[in-house]
Amino acid sequence: MHDRLLSTLQSVASVRLVASLRDERLGFENMKDMRIFIPDLHLISDRRRIQGAFKYATNHTDLLTSVVLALNQLRSEAASDEVIQLYQLGDFLDLWREADGADDQVDVASAIKDDHEDLVTALMDRSLRTSFLLGNHDFDLYRWPDYSAWERRYYFPDTANAAPSVVLLHGDIFDWVESLPDAVQNVFVYLFAPNVTAVDHRLGEMISLIRQSHGDRKYRSYIQAQQPSTLGTVRESVADQVPARWNVQTPGASPQQNLLYLDSAYECCRRANEQYQMNLRVAVIGHTHHARIAVREDADGGLFALVDCGAWIEDCIADGDDGPKPNAQIGALSGNEARIYQLAPLG
Amino acid sequence: MIAAATTRASMGKCKLFFAVGLLIIAGCSARPVTYVTVREAKFRTEVNRSDRLKLPLSAESRERLLRFFKAGGDTDRIGRDIADPEAEQRYTPLLNKLSDPGNLSLEDLTEKQTFKLWFSKRPIRQVIDAREEAPPAIDPVAVTDDKYWWIFYHHQKKLVELLVVKAIPTQMKR
Known about the structure:
The complex is a heterodimer of chains A (347) and B (174).
Chain A: H1 2-10, E1 13-22, E2 33-38, H2 46-51, H3 61-76, E3 83-88, H4 95-98, H5 109-115, H6 117-123, E4 131-132, E5 153-156, E6 166-169, H7 173-179, H8 185-192, H9 200-214, E7 229-232, E8 245-246, E9 248-249, H10 262-276, E10 282-285, E11 292-297, E12 303-308, E13 315-318, E14 325-326, E15 329-334, E16 337-345
Helix pairs in contact in A: 1-3, 3-6
Chain B: H1 2-28, E1 36-37, E2 53-54, H2 59-70, H3 87-98, H4 106-110, E3 127-128, E4 141-144, E5 148-155, E6 158-166
Helix pairs in contact in B: 2-3
């Protein structure tokens, strides 16, 4: 299914391979099941972009619209025994940049969507059935009827006789794990315990943590990356056989910034596996705006992978690039293989 | 006199204290979620989505709306009796505006004051319509003149369709 996704992407975009990892220890072996991940978009209205003097806006929205329409076509052509599921990993709408005060945030979502009608309509098309995560910049949406089905985490695969091996999170919890360890306990239970549904009180606690993390930042000059995120060696030609490992970040061999949250994610998943009888080996996130696959291998042969799908805002730079490029990444997981692609308009 | 002045001063402080307290309580309490629901068939201008009024309003659509308003927003009463004799006078100027393409940008409803005479309250963007398979990708704009909810659907920032629903009074007279 990776090949079909790749040719779908290549039909609308120029595609480079940021990273790939094929390993049976990922625990997602079904070759007929493909999960596709669109990371942070941070959409704001055109007027607010100018008014707020924000340096960054969402990159290549027309390209992303074409990608989503192409994915819908791919999904419609899938066989009845195949799964093609698209996820948006949170920070779809940037309420924090759109509204001055936190209390006004919920009223501005519609105005943002009005300014990006084609993209929003494509992404929320019923036939695509996109699953949405709430990020830290659009968390307040949970209070509103239209967004009540949006989640803070997803687990898969959903098989009757095995615990899920993959968890999807926006990724901001790892900010708190590292900076507010005492406050994160209850949130951990909600995010990692499979049978716990968040009650208003717990969601309120999460809002407090999110607001603490935001502080008084206005995000005018940057959101996550003060410098373009470093992608390492991307593979220009993806027409050839994609290698089992490409540009995988590992402790000891990779710079520390490429391993961000690997240990925190590993620790949270290890704890969830112990406490809730899970089998988590892969955490898929957005949030950092730094596309990469980072892996930790234990002495006992176990493997844990952090698949950070990047963003569609701010910039990145790969080895050999003559300058920064707009982040425009997409992740995919199928048949024990994870990949991240960097996209650009054709021509 | 000094005692009276002291009492007045302490009462003033007390009032100020209560006022500040009330403001704090109001500020800390969660804001209510505001949304509009689409009512049962007989209280709306359409049975199905395919019957939805197109904008700008045609002569036929205006006639249909006026019949609905005269019947007090209850389609059972259309052609039987007049529930609201003033409906024609009240709504004709509004329907005239809605018949003019020059008044039908999204901004006319959300930013400009084009319809302020009828819709003085803030528009609501959360509309729950249980006939639909899922919430809308692009939120319609619901405004009220207190008697009806006027739900405007838009495309590329142009108001293109209209559904009117009889409003439920938020407070009953005692």
